Automatic annotation (TrEMBL):
Annotated transmembrane regions: none
Pfam families: SBP_bac_3
Matching SMART domains: PBPb
Ion transport is among the record's keywords: no
InterPro entries (alphabetical): Solute-binding_3/MltF_N
Domain Solute-binding protein family 3/N-terminal span(s) in chain numbering: 29-251
Coiled-coil residue spans: none
Protein name per its UniProtKB record: ABC transporter substrate-binding protein
Top-level taxon of the source organism: Bacteria
Length: 251
């Protein structure tokens, strides 16, 4: 076969392959999972299962706009518990979960889009508590409540602090108020928002021990082109001030 014909045929195949990839991208659907994690994600009715328009929150508003701008189709479900939806995103092609901390030990397990918002790690105490801390090590002698499966709880366990975990983080606000725990390891602003929703007031921050950013974690099977479109859309939203506007509207 003449060389020119071979080159022409190769060029045609490349164009067809590119068109096929574009078609895949156009019809690709991401199954998004989230949890009740106010003010970032929450069911409008306050229950542990919701779908599509029955979910709101800072991250939900940002993710919806991000997918819209990227032109990527998705479905959205809020369910419980966190361990389950995290495992689904980890194992099932085309799935994603948000929001979650992007930690070194998780880096290779997902493809990441973000950051979506901040999540400082803090220890809260009752307003009348005499506890004063200069380091996390000093908290070792106290009973610390945390959220099961959350990055904060995992970190405390790695540090041998043995947190007492709850299935819902807002349970820790009540436990702290009742004296069942001495300290509550949670995120900021999430902890303050949850305490307010539970009617628990007067809590004080006794230690801020880490700063983290929250992300959308996508299964490694999600095409790179989809991830890049989503990241580009989010970057544009942030540059326009859209992300800050959403954050400020909830806090």
């Amino acid at each position: 076969m003449p060389k020119r014909l071979l080159l022409a045929l190769a060029g045609t195949l490349m164009v067809l392959a590119g068109a096929a990839r574009a078609q895949v991208d156009e019809n690709y659907n991401v199954v998004l999972l989230t949890e009740n994690f106010p003010p970032y994600n929450m069911a409008i009715n306050g229950k542990n299962f919701a779908q599509e328009d029955n979910i709101d929150g800072i991250a939900v508003d940002i993710v919806r706009e991000m997918f819209k701008r990227a032109g990527v189709k998705y479905s959205l479900t809020l369910r419980f518990p966190w361990d389950r939806i995290y495992k689904l995103a980890l194992e099932k092609p085309g799935y994603g979960v948000f929001v979650t901390a992007r930690l070194p030990e998780r880096e290779q397990s997902f493809k990441w889009v973000g950051p979506i918002g901040p999540d400082d790690w803090i220890l809260l105490a009752r307003g009348d508590s005499p506890i004063s801390l200069a380091s996390l090590e000093e908290a070792r002698k106290y009973k610390i409540g945390a959220y099961k499966g959350d990055a904060i709880a995992e970190y405390l366990a790695q540090q041998k602090l043995e947190p007492i975990t709850a299935l819902r983080d807002q349970e820790n606000a009540r436990k702290l108020e009742k004296g069942q725990i001495d300290l509550w390891a949670t995120g900021d602003p999430a902890g303050r928002y949850l305490a307010k929703q539970e009617g628990v007031a007067g809590l004080k921050t006794v230690l801020r021990f880490n700063q983290a950013e929250l992300y959308l974690a996508l299964n490694k099977d999600v095409p790179d082109a989809v991830v890049q479109k989503l990241q580009a859309a989010l970057d544009q939203m942030r540059s326009e001030g859209f992300v800050d506007e959403i954050l400020n509207s909830y806090l």
